[in-house]
Design brief:
heterotrimer, A mainly alpha (334), B mainly alpha (284), C alpha/beta (334), B: 284 residues, mainly alpha, MetI-like fold, C: 334 residues, alpha/beta, Rossmann fold, 2 domains, 8-stranded mixed β-sheet, 4-stranded antiparallel β-sheet
Chain lengths: 334, 284, 334
């Protein structure tokens, strides 16, 4: 079946990715081991730690050990910065990033779709110009700068949103790790409002780029579809315009937007690196940025792998959704 | 004759797109600033190791048009040099990644079979990670510096052009005139570079223009995070990072560099959009 | 507005704005449709037939198209001055059968969904909220489904229940056209507008569809506007026929008389262009396609007419009744 093929293909990509990252990172200059041990370490200590960590073995042996570590023990190697296994760090910080991305995508979609549809149906009207302006800004503004500006204006000058962090006060009981969800599930209103207020700033900044792209795409697709014959026929039957636009035409226009969203999420992960850094958001992107700066190669590889897995998964999901939305694909396969 | 009138018609189409014309003008302006920075900047030495504590952190005033940063350097001059750096970054990245990517893409589409699989799979592996992450990692591997960050971005960038070239070459291959040429016995080289390539130049040029902006965004972000250019280089991202310490009171030292990044990328995007009209081509 | 007339179009002039300039696509078009009759509209591709029909149907895309002048009376009310809502109400009395069955059906919905939606909309008194409510009601859906089956039965689709679940991509061209006819018949319209409904089909299917149309029209004594460029079809179906050229009406007559004895030089050229079985070589009409950017001030057929005089270039001939029921717009006749 098609999806199964994609799955194996994804595994293949992941393997290639892991090899690539592994080799790249081992090539890093500077001796991280020495960094860990500090300037007082003797030659002997360094050698001992190296041996302990298996760093004196040839590289393919190291890779084999690494893979073995993943599958047998679920370990991604020791982080040189935090002195614990990277997999634990990832498990701890991943929900924060997932939550951030989810909220950002939600904002982007909720704003972009109506904006795109309205821009397409009222071409050259004020909404169209606003939409195009937004779209252009979204792809041209440097994210780290926008983050700073948002932080400054909303956090400092207007004091509407907190400056950093994920929550003020105790976090809700840990069920999924997604604060918003957990607080709802445990009826913890205080935690919910706090989390919401904290996530708005970074989410707004992160959503700018996908918002821009999706608006553009929805607008373009809608304009395309609206000129097609079936749209004319629908209008001739006298059905309300709103219904036509949102139900009939959008359905067709949306598949392109969907693939774009799938493509955009990895890009958002990239942007998350800066956004999380500016807002001190405790997610894996920030951990990744820190690892890179600190030459924590296990951390870097771990984060890269997670991102790769996420990418593959998202692609599979998008493919599946595509088949659901467009019956032609389903039928052509059978 | 036909080529010239096509060019003219394209120019007319381009001129209808007013934002694109604005973008074009801005780009030319930026280029002039970049090329002549040492001559036009009011304080060209501020791009280097100058320190002027007495004048530090002054808001915009007639002496320092955009104010000074934490070390007393003129923000405007540094921005001018920063524009120079960013534009060079875009240029170098494109010069490296476009030929490589396009070449690989054409080869993959032309030869099909094993070569195609290898090239496209490698492209896929490179595509699994967002470019900024990749570039960050490579920058770090190569020891953070401006040159290394440029190389890192170029290292990642070819994959987009490879994909584009591959797709375009595949569909151009089906066209009749290729079959005809092949049946007359044209060589591989001739087919690939004299027949297929010229027909896909327009999407490549458009993508290159739009990507230039995106590459600059990534370059400045890398420097902002500290993995690219380092002080005292007047790189726009570094300037924003450095100025971060002086927020919120001394807003000018981070606002203006960021704004310039925005303007540069915006002009590339507008111009690229206009180029689409110029070529009148459907970009797949 | 004479008694018994359903449609009265007077002096309709429409301009189309394009990148390359303004196309003066319609110039002073007159058209009447009486109760119970089928009016044919013939002319070459691009002469303005579809635009006239679309204006009547209310689906002319207004930003590029501009109505410069004219009145379009439908059941006594001028569609051009009505508010949007009132126009939508009038749409209920017209059924539209489009030209291309491939592109005229929404690809992501199946036949049942489209018909049911249409039927429920008719039952909702043009109100979006009522529609949304009724759409959810199971009873309403059943009623609509029964209605849909009945419609499919009317157009002689074998095994209608199976067709309800099919998507357009799964149906043949003839089948799709039948579905489109069924859609047009929803709500028992008083007027059917058919825009070259058989052009995109194979010749054998054409005949079948034509017969079906004829049957449905005579069944309930529908009035109709039948657009075609095929004179043979016009002879079969239409009581009276208008001949259009370059956005103007050049001749109007009862169909048989028109084709047996054409008066206007263009009509004559058309009739003579029909290949005859007797082996006599047929003649085309010399000259080029009309220029809509800068149409001639006088008669628009002037550049290609073999019977022209200088007067024809200066002044536009009006449509005049030269014999009982025969109208021509040509200086040859007064």
């Amino acid at each position: 079946m098609y999806l199964v093929k994609r799955f194996f293909y994804g595994i293949f990509v992941l393997i290639g990715l892991s090899i690539l990252m592994f080799c790249l990172v081992r090539v890093m200059p500077g001796d991280p081991v020495r960094l860990v041990l500090g300037p007082r370490a003797t030659e002997e200590d360094v050698e001992k730690l190296k041996h302990q960590m298996g760093l004196d073995r040839p590289i393919y042996v190291q890779y084999a050990q690494y893979v073995e570590g993943i599958f047998l023990r679920g370990e991604l190697g020791m982080s040189l910065v935090e002195h614990r296994d990277v997999s634990k760090i990832v498990a701890e910080k991943l929900p924060a990033t997932i939550e951030l991305i989810m909220v950002s995508v939600f904002i982007a979609i909720v704003v972009a779709i109506p904006l795109g549809v309205l821009a397409a149906t009222h071409r050259n009207g004020p909404i169209d110009y606003l939409g195009r302006l937004l779209a252009l800004s979204g792809v041209s503004l440097p994210q780290f700068w926008v983050a700073l500006v948002v932080q400054l204006i909303l956090g400092y000058f207007l004091a509407l949103l907190p400056l950093t962090g994920r929550i003020t006060g105790p976090p809700p009981f840990h069920i999924t790790g997604l604060f918003l969800l957990d607080s709802l599930l445990t009826f913890n209103l205080k935690a919910f409002t706090h989390s919401l207020v904290h996530i708005l700033g970074p989410a707004m900044v992160l959503s700018l780029s996908p918002l821009a792209n999706v608006t553009r795409l929805v607008r373009a697709s809608m304009i395309d579809e609206l000129s097609k014959d079936y749209a004319l026929v629908s209008r001739a039957t006298g059905i309300s315009d709103i219904l036509i636009n949102y139900k009939y035409v959008l359905r067709n226009a949306f598949s392109a937007a969907l693939t774009m969203i799938g493509f955009l999420i990895p890009l958002m992960i990239g942007s998350a690196f800066v956004v999380e850094t500016v807002f001190a958001w405790p997610g894996i992107a920030r951990f990744g940025a820190d690892s890179i700066i600190n030459n924590d190669f296990n951390g870097v590889v771990g984060v890269a792998l997670v991102i790769g897995i996420a990418f593959v998964l998202i692609n599979i999901i998008v493919d599946a959704l595509y088949a659901v939305l467009d019956p032609r694909i389903r039928l052509e396969r059978s | 004759m036909l080529a010239r009138s096509n060019f003219l018609r394209g120019c007319i189409r381009f001129s209808y797109n007013r934002p694109a014309v604005v973008g074009f003008v801005l780009l030319v302006f930026m280029l002039i600033v970049a090329v002549f920075a040492p001559l036009i900047a009011p304080y060209p030495e501020d791009a280097g190791l100058v320190v002027r504590f007495s004048d530090k952190l002054t808001p915009p005033n007639p002496k320092y048009l955009l104010g000074t940063d934490g070390l007393g350097r003129d923000v405007l001059s540094r921005i001018m040099f920063g524009i120079r750096i960013s534009l060079s970054l875009a240029g170098i990245v494109l010069i490296i990644s476009v030929p490589i990517g396009v070449l690989l893409g054409i080869c993959a589409a032309y030869f099909r079979g094993g070569i195609e699989q290898i090239i496209m799979r490698i492209t896929d592996v490179f595509s699994a990670i967002p470019p900024i992450v990749f570039a960050l990692v490579i920058s770090a591997v190569l020891k953070p510096s401006l040159q290394h960050s440029i190389l890192a971005i170029a290292f990642v960038w070819w994959r987009g052009f490879c994909r584009l070239a591959y797709g375009e070459a595949l569909s151009i291959k089906q066209e009749d005139y290729i079959t005809v040429s092949r049946s007359i016995g044209a060589s591989h080289f001739h087919l690939m570079f004299k027949e297929i390539l010229p027909n896909m130049l327009s999407p490549i040029i458009v993508k290159a223009t739009l990507d230039a902006g995106y590459a600059i965004l990534i370059g400045t972000a890398i420097s902002f995070l500290g993995v690219g250019a380092s002080p005292p280089t007047p790189e726009l991202g570094v300037m924003v990072a450095h100025a971060r310490h002086y927020l919120p009171s001394c807003w000018w030292s981070s606002l203006f560099p960021g704004l310039s990044i925005f303007v540069i990328v915006l002009s590339f995007n507008l111009f690229g959009d206009g180029l689409r009209d110029f070529f009148g081509v459907e970009i797949r | 507005m004479k008694h018994g007339e359903i449609v009265t179009i007077r002096d309709l002039t429409i301009h189309l704005t394009t990148i390359d300039g303004i196309l003066k696509v319609l110039d002073g078009v007159h058209l009447d449709i009486r109760e119970g009759e089928i009016v044919g509209l013939v002319g070459e591709t691009g002469c303005g037939k579809s635009i006239t029909a679309k204006t009547l149907l209310g689906i002319l895309p207004r930003p590029p198209a501009q109505i410069m002048n004219g009145e379009v009376y439908f059941f006594g009310r001028d569609l051009l001055v009505l508010s949007k809502k009132q126009r939508e109400e009038m749409k209920h009395r017209i059924g539209y059968i489009p030209q291309d069955p491939m592109t005229s059906l929404n690809p992501v919905f199946n036949v049942g969904q489209v018909l049911v939606d249409n039927l429920i909309w008719r039952m909702s008194n043009m109100n979006l909220l009522i529609y949304l409510y009724k759409r959810r009601s199971k009873r309403m859906r059943e009623i609509a489904e029964a209605g849909a089956l009945e419609l499919l039965h009317k157009v002689h689709i074998p095994n209608p229940r199976a067709i309800l679940g099919k998507y357009p991509v799964e149906l043949s061209g003839g089948m799709r056209q039948r579905v489109l006819i069924a859609m047009a018949l929803v709500g028992n319209p008083a007027l059917l507008v058919a825009d070259e409904p058989t052009t995109a089909l194979d010749v054998t299917i054409q005949k079948v569809i034509l017969e079906l149309l004829l049957e449905k029209i005579t069944e309930v004594k529908l009035s109709g506007l039948y657009i075609t460029h095929d004179l043979g079809v016009a002879r079969l179906i239409c009581n009276r026929t208008y001949v259009m050229y370059a956005g103007t009406v050049v001749e109007l007559a009862e169909t048989r008389g028109l084709l047996d004895n054409p008066l206007h030089p263009y009509t004559r050229g058309l009739v003579n262009s029909i290949p005859k079985l007797s082996g006599v070589r047929y003649e085309g009409i010399p000259g080029n396609v009309p220029d809509y950017f800068n149409p001639p001030k006088g008669c628009r057929f002037y550049p290609r007419c073999d019977k022209r005089w200088d007067d024809c270039e200066k002044e536009r001939p009006l449509l005049r009744e030269v014999q009982e029921g025969r109208f021509v717009a040509c200086k040859l006749f007064g």
